[in-house]
């Protein structure tokens, strides 16, 4: 193993020597109210980072001490992940190895291969058999098989259990194998992608799975990033790199990353990258997508690293020809994999219920067998011992014979626990999954994306959903912003009007062909606005679009003569594109200028300052000098902040306010535009303050904001824009249908409160009649409830019955909108922080330890009660919107509802930030067909559009639930009817564990004779059509209330089976007593009796499934009559003399079928038995459908009249002037825009100097940069 070089060794020793112990913890209580505008701390944020977020004014001496200790603080114990560039042997040193299994060791650094499969060629058979025998039922039948091999206790041949068990194990193994092969293919597809890696001194093409930590890689435009890498250099100015993060968060707008200045200068060429030997110490792998802390040691200097320099796996390189990076985290250690949450094994509610019922059957089986064994012991004592003809040559005591018979009855009655139940359930689920995959009405042709059931174990649970938790961006919305309307100088534009200002319901789109820069993608119908722009009658109209073209931080490049805009948010891109189409095209910018084409005339303006957006300011401004020398400030922002800064003399202020109310009622995202003329002297004075604030070393942002406030006042209002955050097709209709099905929708998003609220109105989750409650309202209500509970929780609390109080009066339509910060406040989810001064005293006495433990328990109980109260309150609301929440908070909300409401939940999302939520919910749905596929990879079901959710739940989910319930009820019934005949027979055979049927009939009953009809019902049955299922969502509630399969239904099936078994046994028994055949002989032998019962049983159970079938097809009818015919065919073959000659010991019923079934009265006995079994069922069904019809019975009765499907109509909005208080603040990027890049000139392309010249002057230049 090669050793690291001397320089890296020095840095390694330097780094490790600076690790220090952590400080003790204290609880962090915020003094201020939660901030609605910010996303709360990251999921795994360390306490030290929380310290850094605390604004504080520190004394100068403290600041000096802090800076002196900065090196030590950076290399805390948390930063233990060490990476050496271009040195794989460094990461294989002994102290980086960890024990995996016994003495087998491996490096703590994961390789880049992703593994989701479970088996390989060698482990499949043993591991699969081990997993299958972990199931109680399979293990039970294995024990039975062993017992049947003991001749003293078995009256049943061993193959009666072996054959069904092999079928069950084989089908399950094949299914598991198919699933695992698919996982292998998916893993190979990802792991075998290629990129360029430095090997042997040059870049070589390598597969992703071969990449290791410390490798230097080269990525090209449109490449997926294979690991978490430190950006070293790129083809862009200042080594900028643009990435698309759709795989992480579903957003398609570009983000930028930027390399360190030193790596940008020195690591551009292949030979310099080959010799790069930097050493990095950073935090351990974690799931924080927006945080990174580390240090690069190189050239005897240390350089801080943050998230802006890290390219995350799953992102895509855009608008960057190539870039170079150093792999920091690989494979399972990458942030996208860490953020995927723990994979949970999901099982349905019916699964759990079915297992409990099987356990119940086990108990019944043991009790019945014990009772019969006791009966046999008594019979032996009373009769058997005194009957010489029953002597078997064994001198066993009656009690011992009873003990042997106990195991004999366990074997005979084992079919009460149906061996084929689990495999039949798996086959039905597999078939239902294929129906979902094949559903053309859930196929999205635009992206060629079908629906996909990625699991086969949860289908019936789709019919029992109570709560749906949905992401917003990319799930409810398309994340496509469209310029729809505007208000200029008090006049609203955007309606369907011609050039003469006359309104038309049908009018052609505006033709933008007169504009050479128009992109042809804007659909606009107001021809009067074009007339106003071209005529120039109102200068404000042109000024309005000029402002949109100049006041932004959009980047532009030209490809094949076409303008391509890159915006920090899709809203900003939509506005700049709108200005471009209306004749004011943004063409180019430099560090100090911006060039605009104004109706074909190019003009360049000097940019004096860009006052960037942030979540507190809610606006951005730009100060420009016109070619004529005038200075103007242009500003755009949310109306709430713009109106506070307007000049008193604004004649169109009220008209614009009315327009904003109209736009808000139409759920459009609004934005106010204004400007101001600035005198030269005023600007000079302000610029001095601006430059001074720019150089402040602490609290620079706050200082700049104060300076911005001074210039952004006395503004002149131009108007307002209205942008549509385009919903996916069918979202309001889907939400309306789900609400009628009593499914509650919760929206969990990282977006801003105003934006999320407006989307709530757009998709009709919220209406004008909805009373909206916010975080502060909820906090007050919960505080009051906690006080009341504390007052009632006195000494006598346990004697007082619990009181269920509602938070709101009944009958009111309420919704809850809460931010992540308020969520943490309400749920007492506070982070802890480190105290630099206080040191907690550890408890020294037993009393102190007891008090501390008690205090901790009280805090936990209070937290739990608070969380339960919040869930109760939220569930009283018709809709809940949680905004500004982190991925961990999304999962926490889902978990709270699961825990405290015991309700079935479904989560749907499209980005990596939804993965934790998707895995936490009972069912996870991923939106596929978008750029990001991480959510799909972790989901149980996937499709391309949110609207398909209604079909997945209301059609496939409901059908699957009904089919599975019908299947289980019938399956238990037919097995009870079959098995309990042995019980009745035991009263007539001395409880001797003698079977009532032929051995081969017992073997094939569940496998061939009665399996196909019930499987087809489980696959094909439907009470009403898919169209009627969608038209009447109220049908869905039967699954939510567990009405079709529960313990009551189970015991009904049990009683039905018991009664059927009695009829099947006692009617033939009565018919056989003192009976003489046509030939004068009495065919009342045991074998003829067994054939009669078996024939009646097969006809009864197959006709019973016919009565249970709601949806008849040729296949159903063929399976029922085919099963009966198959039984008779096999029976006559097995009772033939030929097969008896070949296998005399296995086939002993020679000639029984042909002899017995030629007697007419035996056929009459069979017909009578079947009639007595089925006629009461027919009568009860007729009465129930006539007197107590279910909702589906009524719909099925009138299905012809209901065939004309009712069209869903969107709710009409009523606009009330001056009443609406809703407003969607302009959705700038969640982070600052590109203003810093633009003003610093780092994003502007310059002719790059030759690398040799750079290196020659490199060291001195770099030192000057650091010094500055």
TrEMBL record:
Record-stated family: Belongs to the cation transport ATPase (P-type) (TC 3.A.3) family. Type IV subfamily.
Span of domain P-type ATPase A: 191-254
Matches recorded under PROSITE patterns: ATPASE_E1_E2
Active site per UniProt: 471
Keyword set includes Membrane: yes
Main EC class the enzyme belongs to: translocase
Sequence ranges of Acidic residues compositional bias: 42-57
Encoding gene (name): ATP8B1
Keywords: ATP-binding, Cell membrane, Endoplasmic reticulum, Golgi apparatus, Magnesium, Membrane, Metal-binding, Nucleotide-binding, Translocase, Transmembrane, Transmembrane helix
Residues noted as binding ATP in the record, renumbered to the chain: 471-473, 572, 613, 636, 669, 749-751, 884, 890, 913-914
EC number: 7.6.2.1
Origin species: Leptonychotes weddellii
Cofactor(s) for this UniProt protein: Mg(2+)
TM spans (from-to): 156-178, 356-379, 406-425, 967-988, 1000-1020, 1050-1074, 1086-1105, 1117-1141, 1161-1184
Protein name: Phospholipid-transporting ATPase
Residues that coordinate or bind Mg(2+): 471, 473, 910, 914
Annotated stretches, region: Disordered: 15-71
Membrane-protein topology: Multi-pass membrane protein
CDD domains referenced in this protein's UniProt entry, alphabetically: P-type_ATPase_APLT_Dnf-like (cd02073)
Places the protein is found: Cell membrane; Endoplasmic reticulum; Golgi apparatus; Membrane
Keyword flag tRNA-binding: no
Gene Ontology molecular function, alphabetical: ATP binding; ATP hydrolysis activity; flippase activity; magnesium ion binding; phosphatidylcholine floppase activity; phosphatidylserine floppase activity
